[in-house]
Known about the structure:
By secondary structure, the protein is an alpha/beta fold. The protein folds into two domains: 33-158, Response regulator (Rossmann fold); 161-263, Arc Repressor Mutant, subunit A (Orthogonal Bundle), CATH 1.10.10.10. Helices cover 47% and strands 22% of the residues. A five-stranded parallel β-sheet has the order 2-1-3-4-5, sandwiched between helices. A five-stranded antiparallel β-sheet has the order 9-8-7-6-13, with helices on one face. A hairpin with a 2-residue loop joins strand 8 (175-180) and strand 9. The N and C termini lie far apart (71 Å).
Amino acid sequence: MLGCLYIEYILACAFLNMERFSxxxxxxxxxxxxxxxxxxxxxxxxxxxKRAFSDPTIVxxxxxxxxxxxxxxxxxxxxxxxxxxxxxxxxxIELCSSLQLKQKHLPIIFLSYETERSVKVSAFxxxxxxxxxxxxxxxxxxxxxxxxxxxxxAIKETDDIQKFEEIQIDKLKxxxxxxxxxxxxxxxxxxxxxxxxxxxxxxxxxxxxxxTVLSEIWGDSVHVYSRSVDTHVSKLRxxxxxxxxxxxxxxxxxxxxxxxxxxx
Length: 264
């Protein structure tokens, strides 16, 4: 009898450890996921990109037109843009230039069959970070993309001030100013509230789950219930006053930071 109880105890412990590992692993995958936007409807290009990024840590979204791509970037957060320079009747060079004015650090890579120097120069003058001709080596392509994303995140982490139309966040001084009519007023936040706001603001347009917030803000070692995140977000919203609408609740998913415009 005691032997059976001991075996059941061992099995229960093993199950709990597996469950903890599974939760930790899922959080790590969420934390590591990167988003790439691919502009273009060329089948070969889409196939090459999807083959290069078959692992779950990188998500590739596809926009079929310049207008769709511009709309996606405005409403969502991406880590890198891949563009096809030869879209019939559309100007991807102009889009690149426009995006660089609004998000100067966002990496943009052109994928093209064009090998003429004038086309490459036009892309680089518009602000492109790289120009890769097709066909290309998948391993080298993936390495170049991941390198650009790493540098992009390093720059984002070191940006001292995040400026939006409704709010300004100074990371060094840990101060937040909210636009109230024509004036800017300081909002007094706790250390955790400031960290929470900075985390949301660094991922505009991105839907962030409660579990991800827990892992990033409180860490895996601190026991905080996922629903308590709602309480912290509610308190943060109240302190943001006219800018409280920036943190949206996404039913069944989590939260999304949606400013009117990201200023530089």
